[in-house]
Design a protein that fits this description.
heterodimer; A: mainly beta; Porin; three-stranded mixed sheet; 21 strands; 6% helix; globular; B: 13-stranded antiparallel sheet
């Protein structure tokens, strides 16, 4: 995996930081205490075994059920009441079927220094940009850990040096991104993949420096009530590789190709009481073709709906991609309709249900995510994803000769699944 | 239950009676006509002065949720606030239950004008600006709504003085207040304020149908730095559901040198 080379690189830059973290256990921790003490810190963790059942066995004969488990630790330490904070968040997953999904990552290994309205951050960090629920277009700082979840919300740690300034209702964040990470993909035994396997061993980059190219990004935010406007920019190695078939000793595989791109984005939210208006839009230049894309919509919340304590949220979003059928995403002229329920009960029960459908070709993606607390430190989560209105998956040969661009969800047609995760927090 | 006109008449009569019986009160109010609105506002301003003017404060909060059958669940959070020229900023960081640990809520509460809230979700490092109506829903599954927990501003209600009545060993003025905020979950509240320290001892919350919904009782008041009075415990009883929530406030710290930089969106994302 790319992790090792990133480690070598970033360790050189942030070596002192690691040295500091190793000394952490020697310091007495006041977990969860108020900052009475000069120094404070804490270790937390989440252990999450999961069981996934697919409606069919895979097109390439993959198993129809699978066990997996992940462990995420989070340690942080501040010697001086938050002026300097060190954080370490390692993540590891084991998967019964797919050796590619058994992977590990340093989500965070960072130092943050606060001085007045300025923040200096160094190390591996996670940064989220955006406001919409359907797709996350402007969110580009971190590479997606795509074998973790299909919603793209799990990210790999990104080594960076960053400066943040916040004054009044404005914020500016500048990023120097120290190299880039490669996207993770399911292996031959994995599910939720294209008919051909993406093999990262054959990854190529447009930049002669490969994954070590130094990239730049910024985000400026203006947040006067009721507006929240973000303008973002990125110049560097794309997070989304182009996939090109290559003949190798292992047969035909898809080789990821990472072009150098420039991207400008805006994210906008207007907050009017229980109604939120949302927009994300990008213009991306570089790679196979320049394009623009947008996700625009609203979220309306009915507080105390049906005379209960529950809140019901309505989600409506329009997803657009100017590449249309040639888009790397299945959502190029699609509509998202969804409901979010917060039960506001002792168990913090909640669910999110949505369908994304393509009015042109009838393809649909149905999704349900629900969770509730079972006991003080235990949480049960259920995830169901179904595609409908599409044809049966193509075989490797059909996909190689004439990939069906009209039915972008077709490769997932046999991958409808339900996943139960039991998380223990400690 | 008690309707509005009845309350108003009763309050007015009691005030009149008090005026006739108490020469001191007549002297105090001789500058204008006896007015239940003005008197209510005057007492609330005195109570408000007890709650504000703290510059900045930090406190840890433990919530115990009690079901009608006696089942208990608890939550712990840290709360810090700072006074700003137009109101107050509050940052709440959840510690337990552990699945919520690190989740934080930043609020900009204004004396007049719209409040703003940002929620930080640490699992995906996302800050969401959320709608103002969330304030009337249950806070963390408790019997407290968000609007019951924040320090109320005098400007956000209109007042009617009702009566004076014994409360424990003290005497309390009872004032009815109506929220001006259309998103509030209440039609009105009755507030008991003691005449000795001007502290809020008890609040009855009436829902939008003007039915008694909840009663909050505060106890264990202490004086910090010889000027800030704060309760150690608040008990909220929901009369319609039979559920209860106990808030225990501990480790109060005032004037500890927090600045507005500790209440920015970057500060929200630094919450642990």
């Amino acid at each position: 995996m790319s992790f090792r080379s990133d480690c070598v690189h970033a360790c050189a830059v942030f070596g002192c930081l690691i040295g500091f973290l190793i000394t952490m256990p020697g310091i007495s921790f006041a977990a969860g205490a108020l900052p009475n003490a000069q120094s404070k810190g804490e270790w937390r963790g989440e252990f999450a075994p999961e069981f996934t059942a697919f409606a069919h066995s895979g097109v390439a004969g993959q198993a129809s059920e699978s066990l997996s488990a992940s462990l995420r630790l989070e340690g942080w330490y501040s010697p001086d009441d938050g002026r300097n904070t060190f954080a370490f968040v390692p993540f590891v997953r084991w998967d019964q079927r797919d050796p590619e999904r058994s992977h590990h990552d340093i989500r965070e290994l960072s130092w943050v220094h606060v001085s007045g309205s300025r923040e200096i951050r160094a190390g591996w960090r996670q940064v989220f940009w955006g406001v919409t629920e359907g797709i996350h277009l402007v969110d580009i700082v971190n590479q997606t850990d795509a074998i973790e979840s299909v919603d793209g919300e799990q990210k790999l740690g990104q080594p960076m040096l960053s400066l943040g300034i916040e004054r009044g209702d404005q914020m500016l964040d500048l990023f120097w991104l120290v190299g880039s990470r490669e996207r993770t993909f399911p292996g031959r035994e994995g599910r939720l993949r294209l008919p051909l396997v993406v093999d990262s061993d054959f990854a190529r980059w447009e930049s002669s420096k490969g994954r070590d190219r130094q990239d730049l990004a910024f985000r400026w935010q203006w947040n006067p009530y009721p507006l929240r406007l973000g303008v973002t920019g990125f110049s560097g190695t794309a997070r989304e590789p182009e996939l090109q078939p290559v003949l190798t000793g292992k047969g035909v595989v898809l080789a990821p190709y990472y072009p150098v791109i420039q991207q400008l984005g805006v994210d906008v939210q207007v907050t009017q009481g229980d109604l939120l208006w949302k927009l994300e839009a990008i213009q991306r230049n570089g790679g196979q073709r320049n394009y623009h894309a947008a996700d625009a919509g609203l979220e309306y919340t009915q507080v105390g709906v049906f005379a209960t304590q529950a809140d019901l949220g309505w989600l409506l979003e329009w997803l657009y991609d100017s590449r249309n059928r040639k888009a790397a995403t299945p959502f190029q002229r699609d509509l998202l309709l969804g409901w979010r329920v917060a039960f506001n009960d002792v168990a913090s029960s909640s669910l999110l249900f949505y369908v994304i459908f393509d009015p042109d070709d009838g393809e649909q993606l149905w999704s349900l995510e629900a969770q509730r607390r079972l006991a003080e430190d235990w949480q049960l989560a259920l995830e169901i994803r179904q595609v409908a209105g599409t044809a049966a998956p193509q075989s490797e040969a059909e996909f190689l000769v004439a990939p069906d661009l009209t039915h972008a969800l077709r490769p997932l047609a046999h991958d409808n699944f339900a996943r139960v995760t039991l998380s223990w927090f400690f | 239950m008690i309707g509005f006109p009845a309350v108003r008449v009763a309050g007015f009569c009691l005030t009149l009676l008090a005026v006739f019986l108490s020469p001191a009160l007549v002297a105090a109010e001789k500058s204008g006509p006896v007015d239940v609105v003005a008197r209510g506002l005057e007492i609330m301003r005195a109570a408000d002065a007890r709650l504000h003017g703290y510059t900045d404060q930090q406190v840890s909060l433990e919530m115990t949720l009690i079901s009608p059958s006696g089942g208990k669940a608890s939550r712990a959070l840290r709360v810090q606030s700072i006074e700003t020229p137009d109101g107050e900023r509050t940052l709440m960081v959840f510690e337990t239950p552990r699945d919520l640990s690190g989740t934080a809520l930043l609020s900009n509460n204004r004396r007049s004008g719209a409040d703003e809230q940002w929620l930080y979700l640490p699992a995906i490092k996302r800050v969401k600006q959320i709608g103002a109506r969330n304030k009337s829903g249950p806070f963390m599954g408790s019997e407290f709504a968000y609007e019951d927990i924040v320090t109320p501003f005098v400007e956000k209600y209109s007042y009617q003085y009702l009566e004076q009545t014994p409360c424990g060993e003290l005497t309390c003025d009872v004032i009815e207040r109506k929220p001006k905020d259309e998103f509030s979950g209440y039609s009105f509240q009755k507030v008991w304020i003691d005449t000795t320290h001007q502290l809020v001892r008890r609040i009855e919350y009436y829902d939008r149908k003007q039915t008694l919904l909840k009663t909050c009782t505060a106890s264990g008041f202490s004086e910090y730095q010889s000027k800030y009075w704060r309760p150690a415990e608040m008990l909220m009883e929901n009369h319609q559901s039979g559920k209860k929530t106990v808030l225990r406030w501990a480790d109060y710290r005032f004037e500890s040198g927090l600045s507005e930089q500790d209440f920015t969106q970057n500060a929200l994302m630094r919450s642990r």
